[in-house]
Every structure is written in C-alpha cells, then in structure tokens.
Prior knowledge:
Number of strands: 0
Helix content: 55-70%
CATH topology: Cytochrome Bc1 Complex, Chain D, domain 2
Number of domains: 1
Largest sheet: none
Radius of gyration: 19 Å
CATH class: Mainly Alpha
Number of helices: 6
CATH superfamily: Cytochrome c-like domain
Shape: globular
Strand content: under 5%
Amino acid sequence: MKYLSFRTALVALLACGLIAACASLAFADDAAATYKSKCVMCHGPDGKGSAVGTKMGARDFTSAEVKAETDVQLTEVITKGKGKMPAYNGKLKDTEIKDLVTYIRGLAK
C-alpha cells in the first residue's frame, strides 16, 4: 500500500512539473510575441533601442537606469505611457503587462 501511494505521489509530482514547464514556455512565447508586436519598433529586439526609438527617446532596457527601476515602476510606464511612449492601459491585459515586465528584465541579463 505504501508503494502505491508513493508511486501515485511521484506521478502527480511529475505531472505538476510538466504542466509548470509547459505553462512557462507558453508565457515566454506570449510575452515575446507581445514584445515583438508592441515594443520592438522602438526598443529593438535586444531592448537596447532601435534607430527610430533612440531618436524618440526610447530607453535602453539593459541600462543601469532601467535595471534600477522596480517592477511597479516599469508596469506604470507601460500602463500609463511616458514621454512619446503610448499608454497600454486598456490595450493590454494586466497579466500581459506583468509578463512584459518579466520579459524586459530578461533582456537586461
């Protein structure tokens, strides 16, 4: 009986791990797609700024200045806009904005 419950628990644990891994991959794909469609034009594929974006004042996501900002601050900029950057409140869901912040943090590494 102990062997069966251990085996069941192990299978359940492995299933949860697989689900978490798939969800993580889906998040990465969704955030990357959102970044590509909404951000790349100004911030560039690497987050350092495109030629057009740099002229407009787009910030380099790999800079010390952006790295020092909190996730709340980045979320606010995406939500409300800043300078020439448009506000995405109502255009993106809160979860999409949160995922974008995580994606941007990944570009800075």
